[in-house]
Design goal:
Number of domains: 2
Structural class: alpha+beta
Distance between the termini: 40 Å
Strand content: 25-35%
Radius of gyration: 25 Å
Number of helices: 7
Largest sheet: 8 strands, antiparallel
Shape: elongated
Length: 397
Amino acid sequence: MRLRGKIVDQIATEDLVSLVENGVPESRILDYKLQLPGAKSAEKKEFLADVISFANTAGGVIVFGALERKDAAAVNTGELEAIPGLSDWNDDAERLRLTSMLNDGISPALGGSVRFHTVGAPGGGSSVLLLGVPQSFAGPHMISFEKSNRFYRRAESGKYLPDVQEIRQMFNEQGQWSQAAELFREKRLARVGSGSVGELLDTHSPLFFHILPLGRLDGAISLSGRYEELLRHLYPPGISGANGRYNVDGIMGFHQRSQLISAYTQLFRFGGLEGYDTENVRPLSNSFDADGTKFEAHHMLRSAIDWFPKGVEFLSNRLDVVPPYALGVAVKGVRGSIIPVKHGWDQGAAIDVDDIVLPLTVIHETNADTVRDAVWSLFDVVWQSAGLSVAPRKVPQ
């Protein structure tokens, strides 16, 4: 839900001026409305159809207070003539009314993903209401108001009713998105493991964290001019500071040890994150099994509980990359290691696989508690791989 490359919350009056000066027409991601929807049933259905058409396609922005040119038959052409703005309206009251219409008239509900933003009209004296609708991955959505039960999607010329075959495809998409995320992660693990990411990368018992926005792996976000801003949020797992650089995949914040990159966070151009850390398997420190190794799972859990919520917050609030996200945890080179528990004594069974690659888990909310619960569920499997029951719920120090 971007306009001229900006998320809705960042759009200013000068952006609206540019729309008028350049005669930007309606499109697959942009719609103009002179007035807000009224109280009549037909107007409510029209509004709901516009919103779900964006949600079921690629997302978009509705500009309320924009005047379209009309043809000889006085029909709107989709071409922008002016943005006079809205008059005699109450911003807070209208936001509440429109939100209520969306909550009551769409199934499944869009939740809090739709965003409102008010900005001054180009001519001054009035204001414009922008409604940002993200591409939804909890759909497809239909109009449930007055049992309409209709699906809509959007093309360059406006919204349309998809046929049965397209509706069936819409229902199958989420499974395809999950498969695409699994395939992407599989390729990344192989690529990093083969050394093709870079010669200066430490690859000793590496761990991988992933936050992958489903359905967006072939998309792109603009990283230009935002290097310093973004780098402040790209600390590697378990590290409080980082150097950074652009690379072919996007932007990397990294930490070096002995001239090798030992940890990093990679921001991909499609809006996903990969966390990386090394040396997660070390020699045992007790005298009972001096030749054994321990898997630093407590350090890994502590890093994950910090990194994942911050990463989700960064994607959703800084980059406007909305859920659902697939969360992933993987660690390599752990065969024979033991997870140390209870005051340093090593208990449980030795891990009997080379690599632990946990299935991706999908979250639809961005609050920190939801993210942590998902992370702990993943780490329960890590603990069970060493013959233990569950990961500790108290964040280890």
